[in-house]
Each structure stands twice: as structure tokens, then as C-alpha cells.
Write a structure and sequence with these properties.
10 helices; elongated; binds zinc ion
């Protein structure tokens, strides 16, 4: 601990408070603490590194040639710079450098948030209750019940107008009693001296983050989507370089889809809607054709069906029943069931149908109303042997299992249960 040097807690002068564009600085090491598994936390007498807080992620960069992976706000103890490697000696002078692209990105998102939040207050008297900078986008939680697209677009338009007017952004330090006289967008979250961020003629709010010099630096702000969340509206937005990256991605996706349709990018929505409608219609026709095909297939199978005298209770059909046993390759359950239904529409018929896929066997056992046999009991037995599950009614049962290799053997066994 560095306390022995001065006899008091180390306090870091936060250079980012007065200059958000300062990225290179020199400072004295006032504390070095070993953290878990090879990580070290360095405290300096001054820093340009912004630590995680207020919805804004921390800066990264280098310190004495070491990579700074995160900065943590330790309150009165200062800012902890988390590094790995051979750390500088206590009291030495080190050089720090903040990663500018990351800082600029965070400033654009964060300052953009001030403007977008004020736009919702100005237009709809809807305050922001939460803010997060995520990996590729940002979120604000706004007190607005089910906004329309038009409302969202109006707020986006106002925010962009403020950006393009290139208004000055200044920092004002005031006492809490001075602050009480001012019209702030957000209640201060702490006592004592307050740092206010003023966007000329538009927004005044207490904040400890890093902000652009002028609104023009934010470039542009866009809302990507919104949803209801915990009684608020959660708005997903991006500003500055993130908006450009998002535009590239969205444009790329849209052009890829347009290429599939051999159409212009902006003509996709009606074309996609039309394809979906056609697809629905085709499904309807396929189902109809499947039924017709099942009837034709049923007749073919019946012509070579085995005439049997069922076991157990005498069949209601004079002279026994017709038994159709067949194992198909890769046939889905629905199609198998349709075929079984087409078969048992004929009197005195029992159908034991199966399908074999790579690692799954499917079964449908059915009988016509006038034929004998408990298909449910038969199915349960077959599924136990198949290491699977199944069941149904006495006249129609479905199931399946994993023992595909045993399927033929099991089907023969089931057949023998029925034949007298
Ligand atoms: Zn701020």
C-alpha cells in the first residue's frame, strides 16, 4: 500500500474530467497491488483512463509499456489500472496512453445517449431510467408506453438535428444548492459538488463520463429496434462509428437477400411476402397431393397384402384380414400416418408401417374399425424393443426409437403376434 508515503489514501486526479480528448499523459505510481492469478492493479496520482461506470465501459490502452485491460473506479482510493507483466516500481514516473478509437466510440455512444434521452423528454416528457453501452449497440430504458414508429422516428430526427447543428458541449462544476436552482434532466445521484454536462441550449445533466467537445463529433444516431421491458420501453440504438458499422452490416444483409431475388435492395419486402404466400399455397397443394398419392400407394400395397387369420378374438371380418407390413427409408411421421389411414379406410385391414432414418426408427400401427388387434399394446411392445417411446389408441398408434438396426427383426416379431 502507498499510504505510508503520504500517510493518507492515494487520490487519483482524473484528467478525463477536464479533457475527454487527452490520450497521452505522465503520472507517478502511488500504489501497486497484486490481484488474482498474475494480474496487478496500479494506482497513479493522475490518469486519463476512464474507469467502468455510469453505463460506460472502461478505457483500455498502455501504461509503462504494459497493456491496460480494464480500469476500475475504487472511489476515494483512486482508479485501478489492471495490467499483467513486470510492473513499474512504486513512485516511478510512467507514461500512459489511452486507446483512442475505443474512447471515441464510447464518447459517441455516451454523448449520443444524452441527446437521445433529452429528445424523448422534449417531445414526450419521457425520462430515461437506464443506459448501457453493449458490445456493438447501446440501450436506453425510456418511460414511454408502447411508442409508435412515428414517435421513435421523431425523437431520432430531433437528436440528429442537434448533432448536425454542431452545438458546443461544456462542463460546469456547481454546488448542490446551485444545482437545485437549475433545470436538470436527471436528479443528481450524489451530494456535494456536481459536474454538469451542458449541450448548448438543449440539455443539462449531472454526469461523470467522457463527452464529445461538440455534438457534430457524434456524427449520426439511429434506433435499430425497441421492445417492452420491465414496464419501460427498451430502445436499441447506435451512434457514430457504430452507426456506420451497423449500416454496412444491414446493407450487406439486405443486398445478399436482394441477390437471391435478383432484385433491387429496396424491392425485397413485397417480394419476400409474395414468396411466403406462395410457399403456404404450395404446402396446401403438397398436402392434398400426398393424400392422393397415399391412396394410390395404399391400393398397391393392398394388392400384395398377406391374408391372415388373426390370433385371439375372432375377427369381425369373415375369412380373416389383410396384413400390410412395410419398412420405408427416410419417410416422415406425417406421411407414414397418412398412408396408414389410407390403408385402413379399406375394411379388414391391418397396417404395420415403419421408416428407417440415420439414427431413428418411426412406427405407425393401424387397423380398420372392423379388424381385430390392439395396436396400442403392440406399439408399446415394439417401442420397448426399439429403446424408444410410443402409444395411442387400439386402432391407431405411433412411436419410434433408436435401435434402427433391429427394426426388421422387431417388425417380424410384431407380425407374428397378429398371425394365428
Ligand atoms: Zn455523460
Amino acid at each position: 500500500m502507498a499510504d505510508y508515503l503520504t500517510g493518507s489514501m492515494p487520490v487519483t486526479e482524473r484528467l478525463y474530467y477536464s479533457d475527454s480528448h487527452l490520450i497521452e499523459f505522465e503520472a507517478r505510481v502511488v500504489d501497486v497491488t497484486d490481484r488474482v492469478s498474475g494480474w496487478t492493479a496500479i494506482v497513479l496520482n493522475r490518469t486519463a483512463f476512464y474507469p467502468t461506470g455510469g453505463g460506460q465501459p472502461s478505457d483500455t490502452g498502455t501504461l509503462a509499456g504494459l497493456r491496460v485491460v480494464e480500469c476500475i473506479d475504487d472511489g476515494d482510493r483512486g482508479v485501478l489500472h489492471v495490467v499483467q507483466g513486470v510492473t513499474p516500481a512504486l513512485d516511478s514516473i510512467v507514461r500512459g496512453r489511452v486507446d483512442w478509437p475505443r474512447r471515441l466510440d464510447h464518447m459517441q455512444q455516451h454523448t449520443g445517449q444524452h441527446i437521445l434521452s433529452q429528445a424523448f423528454v422534449t417531445l414526450f416528457n419521457a425520462p430515461t431510467r437506464g443506459f448501457r453501452v453493449l458490445q456493438t449497440s447501446c440501450e436506453i430504458d425510456v418511460e414511454l408506453a408502447e411508442p409508435t414508429t412515428e414517435q421513435i422516428e421523431r425523437a431520432v430526427e430531433l437528436a440528429n438535428n442537434v448533432i448536425w447543428e454542431d452545438r458546443a458541449i461544456t462542463i460546469r462544476n456547481v454546488t448542490s444548492s446551485e444545482a437545485a436552482e437549475l433545470s436538470l434532466r436527471k436528479e443528481p445521484s450524489r451530494e456535494g459538488e456536481l459536474r454538469l454536462i451542458e449541450i448548448d441550449g438543449f440539455d443539462l445533466t449531472p454526469c461523470g463520463g467522457t463527452h464529445a467537445y461538440r455534438t457534430g463529433e457524434i456524427g449520426v444516431i439511429v434506433v435499430r429496434s425497441w421492445e417492452r421491458a420491465k414496464g419501460l420501453t427498451r430502445i436499441d440504438f447506435v451512434a457514430g462509428t457504430r452507426a456506420l458499422a451497423d449500416y454496412r452490416k444491414a446493407n450487406g444483409s439486405a443486398r445478399e437477400v436482394a441477390a437471391l431475388f435478383s432484385s433491387g435492395r429496396d424491392d425485397i419486402p413485397p417480394l419476400a411476402a409474395q414468396i411466403l404466400e406462395e410457399n403456404k399455397e404450395l404446402h396446401r397443394r403438397v398436402r392434398l397431393l400426398e393424400e392422393i398419392a397415399a391412396e394410390v400407394e395404399a391400393q398397391k400395397l393392398l394388392s400384395s397384402a398377406r391374408e391372415i387369420v388373426p390370433k385371439g378374438e375372432p375377427s369381425a371380418v369373415a375369412g380373416g384380414a389383410r396384413l400390410v407390413t412395410h419398412v420405408f427409408d427416410a419417410r416422415d411421421a406425417e406421411s407414414l400416418k397418412k398412408l396408414a389411414q389410407a390403408l385402413i379406410a379399406n375394411p379388414g385391414t391391418i397396417a404395420l408401417l415403419a421408416s428407417r432414418d440415420k439414427d431413428t426408427a418411426r412406427l405407425v400401427f393401424a387397423r380398420s374399425a372392423d379388424a381385430a388387434g390392439d395396436m396400442n399394446a403392440l406399439m408399446r411392445e415394439a417401442c420397448t424393443m426399439l429403446d424408444g417411446r410410443g402409444g395411442g389408441r387400439p386402432d391407431l398408434a405411433q412411436g419410434g426409437g433408436k435401435q434402427v438396426a433391429r427394426l426388421d427383426e422387431i417388425m417380424q416379431a410384431m407380425e407374428s403376434r397378429l398371425v394365428g
